[in-house]
Design brief:
The protein is mainly α and 427 residues long. It is built from 19 helices and no strands. The chain has one domain (16-421): Growth Hormone, Chain: A (Up-down Bundle), CATH 1.20.1250.20.
Length: 427
């Protein structure tokens, strides 16, 4: 897959078609993931009014319950993805995601809502732990970061789509209808995924194992390798920062701008949150492009340090609405850049036969800390205000800097396929 020069023109065309088909399918999965997460954040004020529940409870406690499910799904789908393959697990993920999201529209109590959000998280975990390894395995070493950057950019696109759907559907049909509407994109994405091939690199690894009569190394055996364990630690530190930093803030932006600037939920707040994601498209694509040219580690570490300063100023000063929007754009760019680079980096440090497992456990263990993000922000917001609470959350970005600092650069390197090929590399 990585060397097009040794392939015939027909083979090159087949490789490129497979590459773009898999990238599009995974990208649309991230698009749908963003839709499901975003409509919840946008409908919180309406749910709170109808169910007679505080918006802080819905953002905090229910938000954390969603992340518990997402953590379980990330680990579970990743682990099984190395057994049943990438294509199969992505299909299961999208079916579950679509159906459960639609059922959320029928929730009439806080308990039912919390349970459905938990199950939504479980199904949605597959988008992260399967989609990223799937895409990384079909791009060559010179453009892999760009491919992941393209995939990630569909997440903010999905966010913007969710805002548009929310703004059009809610005033006419009510907040529940935006959950029912989830069946439409879910069906389209599932149709596309049924036409996919399995990851060619993953298939080649299985064929090599079978032809060579070598025993396949699964997750449990891989954990006996100290290099594998060390890389899970590195990946966990990176994802701890990415997920905690994002979820400590994203659920609170709509409610914050509604109260701080007297904006309407369906227009003003939706516009501000869309701006965050528009900048995310630029940030994700930039992360992919720069990662393939300047490397993953040092640009990400420098931007993370700038991110801490940005979040402190963004939420610590009293901005006018235009000033707050400028900070939204800058902050959204940094967050998306770090996500795109982090995803490709963690995908690259694991070999193909356990890539989904390694990625899933890295992201899942990192998410165990992020589970506390919404509820911790809720607790701190109750004592010091939302701004201070989000400021304090920026300290988690130090873990991202540490994760890259104790690891090695992957820029320009070929993917390993077998656990036995992993070698410890000094920074």
């Amino acid at each position: 897959m990585s060397n097009l020069l040794v392939a015939s023109p027909v083979e090159i065309d087949d490789i490129r078609r497979t590459r773009w088909a898999i990238t599009l399918a995974a990208s649309l999965g991230w698009f749908f993931d963003a839709y499901v997460i975003t409509i919840y954040a946008l409908t919180i004020p309406f749910i709170a009014k109808e169910l007679q529940v505080s918006t802080l409870v819905l953002s905090g406690e229910v938000g954390s319950i969603f992340l518990v499910g997402y953590t379980i799904g990330t680990i579970g789908f990743g682990t099984v993805g190395d057994v049943l393959g990438r294509k199969t697990m992505l299909g299961i993920s999208i079916i579950g995601y679509g159906i459960i999201t639609a059922l959320t529209g029928f929730a009439t109590s806080l308990l039912a809502l919390a349970l459905l959000r938990f199950l939504t998280g479980v199904a949605g975990g597959g988008e992260l732990s399967i989609g990223a390894p799937y895409v990384s395995e079909v791009w060559d070493r010179k453009s892999r970061s760009t491919g992941i950057g393209i995939m990630y950019s569909f997440y903010p696109l999905g966010f913007v789509f969710a805002v548009l759907a929310f703004s059009v559907i809610t005033p006419i049909l009510g907040w529940r209808a935006v959950y029912f509407f989830a069946l439409v994109p879910a069906a389209l994405i599932l149709f596309l995924r049924l036409r996919l091939e399995e990851s060619p690199r993953f298939q080649n690894v299985l064929a090599q194992i079978e032809s060579g009569h070598k025993q396949r190394v699964g997750l449990l055996k891989a954990l006996g390798n100290p290099v594998f364990r060390y890389r899970i630690l590195v990946g966990s530190l990176i994802f701890m920062s990415l997920t905690y930093g994002y979820f400590a803030m994203v659920f609170y932006i709509p409610s914050f701008v509604i109260h701080q600037y007297n904006l309407s939920p369906t227009v003003g707040a939706a516009a501000v949150t869309s701006l965050l994601q528009v900048s995310g498209i630029v940030g994700g694509l930039s992360g992919g492009f720069i990662g393939d040219r300047l490397g993953r580690r040092w640009p990400a570490m420098i931007l993370a340090a700038l991110g801490i300063v940005t979040i402190y100023l963004w939420w610590g000063l009293h901005w006018s609405l235009p000033g707050f929007c400028i900070m939204v754009f800058i902050g959204g760019f940094i967050v998306a850049y770090e996500w795109a680079v982090g995803i490709v980096y963690v995908s690259e440090i694991f070999p193909t036969e356990v890539r989904a497992s390694g990625f899933g456990w890295s992201a899942g263990l990192g998410r165990t800390v992020s589970i506390a993000a919404p509820i911790m922000t809720q607790f701190l917001a109750g004592k010091f205000g939302v701004g201070v609470a989000i400021q304090l959350s920026s300290a988690i970005w130090l873990c991202l800097i540490i994760g890259y600092a104790i690891s090695h650069e992957t820029h320009g390197s070929e993917l390993a396929d077998r656990v036995e090929q992993m070698r410890h590399k000094q920074c």
